[in-house]
């Protein structure tokens, strides 16, 4: 699996949103208009997040990894959003706790057998303070994609 192929500058977002719903609509809108996800993706994403929350509090900042089933995906991709103001997500594994997420990795994975591998790589990236902060402080789309490619080349994935 070539991890880099999931990312593109057209799916990098710098957003000023005030809710998870607004965040999902913004990211879905572009992903859908570019043909990455089906119309059903947005509702499926919101419903899955209610049952299986994806917020994760790292040592340095909050991250979320919203995703849904492969039947809602046309073309594999991962949208990356850096938020001006954090958005609240329920904590993965502890739904009574919340995470103020500043970075979002929105997965659109077509092959279910790849999802676990992708999640493991993103989890590793989230634990790398230097890489995570480079994404958080990036000035543009190119810098985020470059950081992700640097990370994946270190792992050779």
From TrEMBL:
Keywords: Sugar transport, Transport
SUPFAM superfamilies membership: Phoshotransferase/anion transport protein
CDD domains recorded: PTS_IIA_fru
Limits of the PTS EIIA type-2 domain: 4-151
Subunit and partners: Homodimer or homotrimer. Seems to be a monomer when not phosphorylated.
PANTHER family for this protein: PHOSPHOTRANSFERASE SYSTEM MANNITOL_FRUCTOSE-SPECIFIC IIA DOMAIN CONTAINING PROTEIN, PTS SYSTEM FRUCTOSE-LIKE EIIA COMPONENT-RELATED
Name of this protein: PTS sugar transporter subunit IIA
Source organism per UniProt: Corticicoccus populi
Top-level taxonomy: Bacteria, Bacillati, Bacillota, Bacilli, Bacillales
């Amino acid at each position: 699996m070539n991890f880099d192929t999931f990312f593109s500058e057209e799916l990098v977002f710098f957003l000023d949103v005030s809710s998870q719903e607004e965040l999902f609509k913004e990211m879905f809108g572009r992903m859908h208009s570019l043909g990455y996800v089906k119309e059903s993706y947005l509702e499926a994403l919101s419903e899955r997040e209610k049952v299986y929350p994806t917020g994760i509090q790292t040592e340095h900042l909050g991250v979320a990894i919203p995703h849904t089933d492969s039947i809602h995906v046309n073309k594999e991709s991962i949208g990356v959003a850096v938020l001006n103001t954090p958005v609240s997500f329920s904590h993965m594994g502890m739904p009574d706790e919340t995470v103020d997420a500043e970075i979002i990795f929105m997965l659109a994975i077509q092959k279910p057998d790849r999802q676990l591998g992708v999640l493991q790589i993103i989890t590793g990236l989230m634990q790398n303070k230097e890489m995570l902060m480079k994404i958080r402080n990036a000035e543009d789309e190119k810098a985020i994609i470059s950081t992700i490619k640097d990370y994946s080349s270190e792992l050779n994935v």
